[in-house]
Amino acid sequence: MAGWLDPHDSVAVTLTVNGAPRKVRVPPRRTLADALRDAGFTSVRLGCEHGVCGSCTILLDGAAVRSCLMLAVQGQGHTIETVESLTDGDELSTLQQAFDDNDALQCGFCTPGFLMLIEGLLRSEPEAGRDRILEVVSSNLCRCTGAVPVFQAALNALAANRDDP
Amino acid sequence: MSAPGGGLIGSPAPRRKNRELLTGEGTYVADIRLEGQVYARVVRSPSAHARLLGVDTSEALRVGGVVAVITADDIDDIRIPIRLPFAESPEANAVLQAPLAADVVRYVGEPVAVVVADDPYVAEDAAELVSIDLDELEPVLDPANSTESSQPLVHESFGSNTIGRLAYRYGDIDAAFARADVVVRRRLRVHRLAAAPMETRGLAADYDPGSGVLTVWGGAKVKHFTRALLSRVLGLELTDVRVIEVEVGGGFGTRGEPYPEDILIPLLARRLERPVQWIEDRWEHMVATNHAREQEHDFELAAGADGRMLGFRVRGWCDHGAYVRTQGLLPVVLPMVHLPGPYEWPAFSMDLDAVLTNRTPVGTYRGPGMTEATFVRERMVDILAAELEMEPADLRRRNLIPAESMPFSFMPGPGSGAVMPIMYQGGDFVTAFDQMLDGAGYDRMRVEQRQARADGQHAGVGIAAYIEFAAVGPFEEVEVIGGAGNVVVRAGVGSLGQGVETALAQIAAELLDVPLSGVTVEFHDTAEVPQGFGSFASRSTVLAGNAIAAAVDEMKAKAAPLLGCGPGDVEFRDGTATAPGDRSVGLGDIGPTRGRFEKEGLTASFGGAVCSVSVNPADGRARVDRFALAHDVGRAVNPRLLRGQLAGAAAQGIGGALFEEVAYDEHGQPLSVTFADYMMPTAAELPDVEVTIIEHGSGSNPLGIKGGGEAGMVGSLGAVANGVADAVGDGAEVLTSSVSSARLWHALHRPRRA
Amino acid sequence: MKPPPFAYAAAGTLDEAVALLDEAGEDAKLLAGGQSLLPLLAFRLARPSHLIDIGGVEGLDILEEQDGSLCVGALVRHATLERADLSGGWQALREAASLIGHLPIRVRGTFGGSLSHADPAGELGVVAAAFDAEIVLRSLRGVRTVPARDFFLAPLTTAADPDEVLVEARFPTPGTGFRSVFEEFSPRVGDFAYASVAAGCRLATDGLARDVRIALGSVGPTPVRARDAEQALSGSFLDDTAIVECARLAAETCHPDAGDWHADGTYRKALVSHLVERALRRLGAGP
């Protein structure tokens, strides 16, 4: 049986981030979002730290989750993807390009979280219809655009993927 | 001046920065990590109003990892000043905020102490151990009643909860009411809102004892003012303070003003000689960062039976919260200048009080004052339309100031106080109004409304027309440095995510005939940018853009002797200054050139919004099905970015009407401190905002541009409220700017007005 | 807004979880998906001395019919439940799961976590009340079963003792022809509902409603069964008159008191009536 980890002791946690193993030392209370940011993945943004805004959304084993609502120790052994993984060399992904084309970003703070949210949908539900896409896009907040352009970008990206999977 | 033609100004150039932001590379202030950095946590008042008997920091200091704890006893007795001379008064200056409360706490969230530790988690642990000894006092919570003698005083030494009373008289108001066929009267309330950018505020500060330079990251909006303030309160030379703007996650008027933390964090960095970072958390943001909009107005409108509006009287109370902050009396000044709006009133009389309550201070939020005033006036115009059984658009059109009356002014008459005169430089309101209706497809909206009603639905159409005063001076200065085929522009404005760097690059590229990619706009660092007033009041593109035009004129003057011709003969072609006969010099040979654009007063622009709304009376839910807005920007520098600004602002306004509210309980405890409670709209609740850009030029600046960053907000509360009122018809009276489902359901199920 | 300090242990098996919980004492808490617990920690509204992570415990994600009941394991994620092949009788469960927060919350959030959190706005507790689910608790002392009506005691308070782990809930399989639906009103997509309704019945061949079940959420300290409304509808046709009367009785059943500042009690009662009506019309309209 695993033993207790004291509140102020740190433990080594191995996360697989964007394909590479990352060892971080964290006390039990450190959130996954903070641990990722400390490890240099600052695209994981903290907008509310209580699981509403979605700016810290990452992919955990391929599904979109809020990294502020996980402890780093819960990430042990899991596969994590952040927005840094989307770009292939210099080329923006179809989804990133759709954001650019649809003016789906202004200040950019919420953008990585939205990208990962929709990336998760692209992968798990490539056939998602308009209502489902809207429901999923409504998971996150964008104060600059109101997120309707983000919805448009998501529609375009899903359509493009269906045409050219 | 340079004669800008087609080309880049007016083109939908792609926004700069997008790539960096899409790949997650942008650096925001929380991403800054400095060697030896420590973390600050602000200890805040848990009480809305109490005497502060003592603050015990001993237990907090014993926590391992804690570096320092300071209270008011540890800092000089200073007040954060008002930034704008026209928003100051002796009364306002008597109720400014200190960085840390000393004797009395006046709102929940007021800073009382700061803990610094080597880890943000530990800082929060230790902050909980700072013990605050309070003797509770009754809080003042209702702006309209705050001036009653039974109410306690927010600032005992000041002796009143009213810190200013503005009076504006125009025409013969008694005569106007005497000859009126119809008078409508209502008490209207605008609810408290928060800008709530997705990134909270934050700062990182580092003091280098060797060079004596203090560097502060996280500046925004008014970096140069912050620099001057820090230099003064910390006793540093102006040139030894650098304020640097990194990526900013939205501002909307609230971010970037100097708040208590903007003094405390640099002060700690200097005192500890260690880099200190402070990142506001969301709970803090909802109590510490300026709120906006809350006010009440008793409004009477007099009109003839033919629909001619003869005059209005308004008595209003504009909440400033517990202290006057850097924006001074703007929460009362701005509603006043925007209340008359685009109509040709023969007379009006306005009395607005600036009042204090024991709640978070109020500042400006996108479309400040004008959004509130537009809601109040436009709701009343619709109430009048219902009374007269007139079509709301027709009633408005009949009363708009005609183009032939331009320029137009409502000069303050006898009985007025020291108020800013209301003047419109130009514009054709009637044509613009019809452009708005056409753009929205107003007639079709009405047809669809009739069809929906025939199907038993509660469908409404709402209109609001407004005047926005924007692009405030006094001036902006830029430096333009030419090189071989490239240009650097240094400007003192800021980027809050709105894309000003793209718009300024377009202006410079067109005027100097260089490729857009060859222009760099620098505005991040006060050490590199001579001076500036900042980004607010939709001024950045207008002021800095025209300063670029002035710099380009100056470059012609400097190039002329090099080319042996007159300045008027110099043309910029393909990155060089040329003279007739094929002589040319490179931009780099002209040398760095400064341009300055001075601007008096404010620029008035006309705009409006039209929306269609459906209401479900069973659950009170209102939905904005369509929202179309129009705004006169004079000339669109980048229509694509402009649309984004206008539509984004409207989205905030729609959310403000339908969902958002900053609420307090009867003890002054804030209720909207989470994003589950402060409900901003998502894609699922918003329509795709339709934008009509009107370009009626402007004689007041060489480039002919007016403000555009905020305008989408201005008509939103009024249009949505009018749409909801129209949808429910006689079913309910809409008298507040919040039409949340609960409010609306109650309005629908309240006994009807007699 | 950082969690307070706590000791942590990850359990690999249910036995370990039970032993760790016993050892840690009454200020310990279980961590499963964490979607309710992490916000409480962030605001420091919860300050557990110990967290026992049961996320990796095997065998707690059962979702199948056994011995006349649908067993839903504590670690079944909402996202799994919302996509599960549950129609007809179980449709309310699937619909309720699909209305919990947003997709990223449902990907992590667990069935057992939601029931244990006992938020009066929690959708799954309302379904558990409607179906008379039995909640299975385990501790070193043994296993016991608590019916849903006795499980929810007050907001954020359940009948589970500090040393007990919620293992699963068993939903008795209803008779053939039984159908159920879930309806709620939330201001925005994904918000906590101001009112919610789980409703089910069997329309017999004679067209009369039998085995009527109506439970309400967000309108009291715990989920509420609207027994008077159920009785009134039992044995009658699902026609307009019966539906309206049933909705009225349901609204009378609940006592949301003052509600909260978003939605007061009077408004919530009105929503109940509206939602019950909507749910019954759906049941009446057939599959």
Instruction: Please write the CATH class name of the largest domain in chain A.
Output: Alpha Beta
Strand content of chain A: 15-25%
Tell me the fraction of residues in β-strands of chain B, as a range. Answer: 25-35%
> What is the CATH third-level topology name of the largest domain in chain B?
Aldehyde Oxidoreductase, domain 4
CATH class of the largest domain in chain B: Alpha Beta
Oligomer status: heterotrimer
Could you say which overall geometry of chain B the principal axes of the C-alpha atoms support?
A: globular
Q: Can you tell me the CATH superfamily of the largest domain in chain A?
A: Beta-grasp domain
Spatial order of the strands forming the largest sheet of chain B: 3-5-1-13-10-11-12
Instruction: Summarize the amount of helix of chain A as a percent range.
Output: 25-40%
What is this entry, summarized?
The complex is a heterotrimer of chains A (165), B (754) and C (287). Chain A is α+β, with helices and mostly antiparallel strands and 165 residues long.
Give an overview in words:
The complex is a heterotrimer of chains A (165), B (754) and C (287). By secondary structure, chain A is an alpha+beta fold. Chain A has two domains: 11-85, Ubiquitin-like (UB roll) (Roll); 94-163, [2Fe-2S]-binding domain (DNA polymerase, domain 1, Orthogonal Bundle), CATH 1.10.150.120. Chain A contains five helices and five strands. Chain A has helices at residues 32-38, 94-101, 111-124, 130-137, 148-163, and strands spanning 11-17, 20-26, 57-60, 63-66, 79-81. A five-stranded mixed sheet of chain A has the order 2-1-5-3-4, with helices on one face. In chain A, helix 2 (94-101) packs across helix 5 (148-163) and helix 4 (130-137) crosses helix 5. Chain A is elongated. The mean pLDDT of chain A is 95. Chain B folds into three domains: 18-26 and 472-598, Aldehyde Oxidoreductase, domain 4, CATH 3.30.365; 35-139 and 197-288, Aldehyde oxidase/xanthine dehydrogenase, a/b hammerhead (Aldehyde Oxidoreductase, domain 3, Alpha-Beta Complex); 423-471 and 602-754, Aldehyde Oxidoreductase, domain 4 (2-Layer Sandwich). Helix content of chain B is 27%, strand content 25%. In chain B, the strands form eight sheets. A seven-stranded mixed sheet of chain B has the order 3-5-1-13-10-11-12, with helices on both faces. The radius of gyration of chain B is 26 Å and the shape is globular. Residues 1-6 of chain B have low confidence and may be disordered. Chain C has three domains: 7-53, Uridine Diphospho-n-acetylenolpyruvylglucosamine Reductase, domain 2 (2-Layer Sandwich); 63-172, Uridine Diphospho-n-acetylenolpyruvylglucosamine Reductase, domain 3 (2-Layer Sandwich); 178-282, CO dehydrogenase flavoprotein, C-terminal domain (Enolase-like, domain 1, 2-Layer Sandwich), CATH 3.30.390.50. In chain C, 34% of the residues lie in helices and 26% in strands. Chain C is built from eleven helices and 14 strands. Chain C has a five-stranded antiparallel sheet. The longest helix of chain C is centred in the C-terminal third of the chain and has 21 residues, at 265-285. Chain C is globular. The model of chain C has no long low-confidence stretch (mean pLDDT 95). The chains are: A alpha+beta (165), B alpha+beta (754), C alpha+beta (287). Chains in contact: A-B, A-C, B-C. At the A-B interface, helix 2, helix 3, helix 4 and helix 5 of A face helix 1 and helix 17 of B.
